[in-house]
Write a structure and sequence with these properties.
Layout: H1 3-13, H2 22-61, E1 65-69, E2 81-82, H3 85-92, E3 97-111, E4 116-124, H4 131-135, E5 137-140, E6 155-159, H5 160-166, E7 173-178, E8 184-194, H6 199-202, E9 205-209, H7 210-216, E10 223-224, E11 226-231, H8 237-247, E12 252-256, H9 257-260, H10 262-300, H11 302-310, H12 315-351, H13 358-361, H14 372-390, H15 402-407
Parallel strand pairs: 4-9, 6-8
Antiparallel strand pairs: 1-11, 1-12, 2-10, 3-4, 3-7, 3-11, 5-8, 7-8
Helix pairs in contact: 1-12, 2-10, 2-12, 2-14, 10-12, 10-14, 12-14
Length: 409
């Protein structure tokens, strides 16, 4: 066995060698490392969970990619495009596409006896994937939309916020007014109420049969507002958008969710900076604590260092003894940090221990996403950086004189 490792193990793990002065220093160092690393890992986990939660909600209301008419229209009203079965099937067959559906949107006003409220009516067809809204339903069910052009359902899906503002209950009828020439009115029946806590969308978005919008806009049965496409990998959505853009006709445009909602995704990117600051601060706290603890231990063991020098051990071998001891402290701290993180992640995901204000954070509890790769990188990075930093205070060992330290009482 390496002599430095053997001496470090005997010196700092044997109870008789850990006096009342050294033992609390080691415990404080382990605790500080555990807290610092746990905070770093949890910061990354919570940020990942927060970004995934918000992104999934934005995508749930729309999709990864939308295809619409190529123009400068910035309103909620779609310009019609002809449904092209060939393009639809060609996009659907792409390796990275998981789903495609037809849709259209139209602005309207819901009115009851006391209140009016502006909404965006989103018309979808039988090919729409309701999984996101089924997971966020608080009562009722999603509209039952049929493929037949003659079978139009009056079912409508509204949010809890709209339901509360207008005092509309499940199963009740509501009237939507559409400002056009001439003005139109449609009566719907509330079949379901959803809640995502993403107020920017919850406050205005309602869902109904696409065939209603086709009639309201005086389109023919082969016209739609556009296509919504979901991909298998959101990280590469920009490149997928360019690939789809090359497949479609010149009068159509493909836009990713990041392009359509830049303010939300830019805001999410800003959160990365906050986590970087936390990581740097916690790493500094851990390193400073380790250096301080090592300096105190070196000074407290100065007589022992003098004895080792007297029997012929080189400065570097003695320095390695204290570096190995610090690594032992560091690994203990990492063990407790990872244990705390794993337990907290499990209980938070299972029982939602820490709640949040939905009106501010768009979710009712702290989101957390377990990422073994991020955990490994933070642990490895902490070990490497701390090892490098710990070499510096051991320079003090070279300045300790054997004669003076042994004679010192």
């Amino acid at each position: 066995m390496n002599s430095s490792i053997f001496i470090a193990k005997r010196l700092f793990t044997a109870k008789e060698n850990n006096n009342n002065y050294t033992r609390p220093i080691i415990r404080i160092a382990i605790l500080a490392i555990a807290i610092s690393v746990a905070v770093m890992i949890l910061s990354v986990f919570i940020l990942s969970g927060f970004k995934d939660n918000i992104s999934s909600k934005v995508i749930g209301f729309g999709s990864h990619i939308k295809i619409t008419k190529f123009n400068n229209n910035q309103s909620f009203e779609n310009d019609p495009i002809d449904f092209n079965v060939k393009i639809y099937d060609e996009i659907k067959s792409l390796d990275f596409v998981s789903h495609i559906n037809k849709y259209a949107t139209k602005a309207g006003i819901i009115k009851n006896d006391d209140e009016i409220h502006g909404v965006v009516l989103k018309g979808v067809s039988d090919d729409y994937n309701w999984e996101f809204f089924k997971n966020n339903l608080i009562s009722g069910e999603v509209p039952n939309i049929k493929d037949s052009t003659k079978n139009i359902t009056d079912d409508i899906l509204i949010s809890e916020s709209i339901s509360k503002k207008l005092n509309i209950k499940l199963g009740e009828e509501l009237v939507i007014y559409f400002i056009q020439n001439p003005a139109r009115v449609r009566k719907f029946t509330v079949s379901g109420i959803y809640k995502t806590a993403l107020s920017e969308f919850d406050d205005i978005t309602v869902f109904a049969d696409l065939k209603h919008l086709i009639k309201l806009n005086n389109w023919n049965n082969n016209q739609i507002g556009g296509y919504e496409i979901k991909t298998l990998d959101f990280e590469n959505v920009s490149s997928y958008t360019l690939e789809i853009d090359e497949l479609i006709d010149f009068d159509l445009k493909a836009q990713s969710s990041k392009e359509l909602n830049p303010q939300i995704f830019d805001w999410l990117r800003l959160q990365d900076f906050n986590v970087i600051i936390i990581l740097i601060l916690m790493l500094l706290v851990g390193c400073v604590n380790m250096v301080t603890s090592l300096l105190i231990i070196i000074l407290e063991k100065s007589k022992f260092i003098g004895v080792l020098k007297a029997i012929g051990l080189s400065n570097w071998n003695i320095r390695k003894i204290f570096i190995y001891n610090s690594i032992y402290i560091l690994l203990n701290g990492l063990f407790w940090a990872n244990l705390v993180v794993i337990l907290f992640t499990f209980f938070q995901k299972r029982f939602h221990l820490i709640s949040l204000d939905e009106t501010i954070y768009f979710m009712n509890s702290v989101p957390i996403k377990f990422d073994i790769f991020s955990m490994f990188i933070i642990n490895l990075g902490t070990i490497i950086i701390c090892y490098i930093v710990l070499i510096i205070p051991t320079v003090l060992i070279a300045k300790i004189s054997p004669a003076k330290s042994i004679r010192f009482e």
